[in-house]
Amino acid sequence: MRIPRPHHIAVGIALLVAAFNSRTVISAVAPIADRLEAGLGLDTAGLSIIATLPPLSFAVFAAATPVLLRHSGLERAMALALGSMVLGHLLRAIAWDPLSFIGGTVIGLAGVGVANVLLPPLVRRHYGTRIGLLTGLYVTTQSLGTALPALVGVPVSDAAGWRVAMGLWAVLGAVGLVLWVVVLRRASTPVAAGLADLDPALARPVGRVWRAPVAWAIAGLFALGASHAYAMLSWLPAVLVGVAGVTPLQAGSLLALFGAVGVIPALLAPMLAARIRNAGLIVAGGFVALLGGYLGLLIAPGLLLVLWVALVGVGAAFFALCLALVNLRTRTHAGTVVLSSFVQVVGYGVGSIGPLVFGLLHESTGAWIVPLVALASSSVIALGAAVVLRRPRFLEDEWLPRSSG
Q: What is the value of pTM for the model shown?
């Protein structure tokens, strides 16, 4: 779909608003969890279920997205994804019991899972010469979508009730939906009917992606970042209290630092990857930071603790680089769609068990040394990915017959 030049900026805004909304479904619950427990009877078990749903839902609905795109264009599918997010927010705002609230959460997360896959190919289609910049911007916008509900959720809930605090995000989702409807209406050529129209030769490429080394390299890197990020977000405060003797308040501040420093590589790594041929150098840099941070926590936790936490935060932020590589290591729109789906199925599927494995290792040993050693050891996956990504290998070159080029 071609967009007239006067509306080029509008497409960029629509992309960023969609990226923002793709995180409010996740982050709107935790800040007002106590209100949900008091007003809806959502107990610890229910909240635990909700906490485990995002990565699992992302993996499931990422796998389903290529099927959806066989019958719908990218832009129309994004509008449907945003509609699902809006409906999820509304159902949670009017929920009458814990089960209905969880059901609304699943519906909202379905839209997020689809949007996660669609964002890279949409960037490729509309901003093919600015992939690094747009990827960095939308990943940063997703960080804002994570942070804002934490800032305003409690004040809004105190002033107007938890239902308003939850339904507020449906309004912003509706704004994103309207923007995509405008994009669809103002397109100068018809929207592609589906995945096959993006590249007829790749009408059914899903099975082929499993045989492509570049796909496994990017998926492994995404899985590494996801598992480490989720493990640290779940356990870092307890780890710091246990190994460094800090107070819970200090541990909370260091968790905020862990999240904040990830914005830097999220913004810079995609732009750097778009400029250099050897993406393995960027991956190797992340590996050094990640391993250095864990070794610091293991060997000298009482010394330079801020530095160790910052290094882990920088090293675990492989998400943005992987999302940029989804575009930079594919030649076609169809290839981008399928690789985006594959990377997120594998990445979020593995990432969802990271906190569980980390917690089980701590429970079985009674200390944090073994879990930290396990994370440090697993970071070697980045070196394998760096070797594959050191040359500009493209997905389609690895799955198509040689006679097809």
A: 0.79
